[in-house]
Amino acid sequence: SQAPVKVAVTGGAGHIAYSLLFRIIAGQLLGKETPVELRLLEITPAMKALEGVAMEIDDCASPLVSNIVMSDDPNVAFDGANICLLVGARPRGKGMNRSDLLAANGAIFAPQGKAINDHAADDVRVLVTGNPANTNTLIARTHAPDVPGSRFTSLMRLDHNRTIAQLSKKTGVPVGEIKKVAVWGNHSDTQYPDITNATIGGKPATEAVNDAEWLENTFIPTVAKRGGAIIEARGASSATSAANATAQHMHDLMLGSPEGDWVTMGVTSDGSYGVPEGLTFGMPCTTKNGEFEIVQGLEFSDYGKAKLAATIEELEAERAAVHELGLV
Length: 328
Ligand code: NAI
Prior knowledge:
The protein has two domains: 5-154, Rossmann fold (3-Layer(aba) Sandwich); 157-317, Alpha-Beta Complex (L-2-Hydroxyisocaproate Dehydrogenase, Chain A, domain 2), CATH 3.90.110.
């Protein structure tokens, strides 16, 4: 039988983890053959709640769980970890401005990056879900100089899935027949959900939709502001859909993106499409065996170029702000 894969999850007592952990032990991360050792990180006051979550994991009697380790010390939680899912983060509190938020999260993601650098397995893969996810990824990666930068990715898959869902609703075509959507840039309102290269039921998506007004004025804002709409409706931020996307992102990175399609991931820019090097940026990628390739040669409309420029500008401002704070 296979050796267990060590999967670290931070924010283990939080809402997303409460869906994510049970997906992992049901085989939705690495398949139904690969056992996992869960290494759960929480802050000290949440350790009791984390123990309750671990009791429920026990009570699922999943044959995939080889062991559960719980800690409030990232040096312990990430020790030997092959996969790190960084979910726990500091939400924006009352009266906090953007700089306060970046500083509070820097205080989490800088030491976690260092702990990954010093203690994780040589083959570690890291996915940041906790917001502001793109810039938290940049911070963690900066503090892990011995780990190749390509090992750090951020969650844009929820935005990718939201794009597909809206297109399916508009056209009536099942989600499984919608391919090659992309979401460029930041996991924020400035993101650019792009269907220029997509197909819907085998037809070019722009033809299948045939409603340019809807694309610009309804579709893009609906996808980009979906997180806020869910908070408004549910009184809490999206949790299960975020957990689902987190598991899918890492599943596809490790086991491969679907043939004839691609996935959106926040990756370290290599300068492709004029995105400044080093920004963590949503891009369409194909994936296999823990490696990704940014899809090359895609065309942008003038509208698309302006959208791309706006989300680049926002991420550069975030990078400048965390640089100012001494975090990168
Ligand atoms: P939550 O507040 O329910 O859970 C977060 C957990 O993280 C809490 O239990 C907290 O104690 C823990 N935590 C805080 N600091 C920690 C640290 N230093 N080490 C370990 N654990 C720590 O939040 P929820 O709903 O689970 O969301 C988690 C994050 O995911 C938030 O930042 C949220 O904004 C983000 N998110 C990202 C999405 C994306 O698409 N990228 C989508 C939805 C949410």
